[in-house]
Specification:
five-stranded antiparallel β-sheet, mainly beta
Amino acid sequence: MRSAPYALLALLLAVSIPMEAAQRGGPPARIVTFEARPGSIEPGESAVLVWHTENPSGGITIQPEVGPAAARGTATVTPAATTTYRLSIGDALSETVTVAVAGTTPVTADSVAPAPAVERDPRLPNGELDLSGVYNFAGLPRGTEPPPLAAGGEQFRIVRGPNDVRGRTTLNTDCVPLGVPQSYITPYPFQMVHRPGMLVMIFEYPNAIRMIPTDARPLPVEPDPKWMGSSVGHWEGDTLLVESIGFNDKTEVHGFLHTESLRVVERFTRLDNGSLEYEVTVEDPNVWAAPWVIPARTFRLRPELDWVEEFVCESNVDYERYFGN
């Protein structure tokens, strides 16, 4: 379980920076611990691998046996011989730990073929491409720039000061939903649960949920304004196109406030490796003089995660004390 204030402070630090800074890399990855408990066993016994990493933007694998792994966790292994396990973050960072099995010849991660990936049925019973899974967030693509502002649109631009942690310009540090597409840049994963005719999206922060029918029904007429809007989807080949309206005016879109005229069009395309290519266009004629077409980015599939974590958000914390005066 993740809880505020510290997890929420991390969110504030991660997404309250200027757009150009958001496009740069985050803090470096590191392996805090990687150990085996116990380190020596008898044949037929098991050991537990325990690991803790930070900022693993390149993805984590543990070989042999384990495969993709979460940022921190445990895995029970029963090696037939003394085995050296390697935890890798991307291609540049790794550590090893050995489980000694009495009376056996040692093997290493490089000498044991990784377990074959388990293939899932790519389609639902009604023929829809199954988008179920947990996916990583993704910041704005490099070079993302808003379109020209409409007449009077300058009033919607958000200008933050160095200690601006209160009010409507705080990227919702008061624990309310972030809206669309802002929710995708928070440093927490999100989950898709896909059933025939319905896609449910669960955002770990701040436990926000979207319900998206995928049966090509029309958009509702004059829906009540909501934090996450009202959405409908239809398929264009193997790309799911989602249209959303009916937003309230309490969220932001990448540095701008908006009105209840906000309209969002999203395209989700599953790649061969299971990740999602995401394209989005936002429109609000009160803010921008033209639709804002944001370049495509990729939400990496997190096969090591079965679901997103619980996030308990507190809204009664004075964050100014973390920044000083």
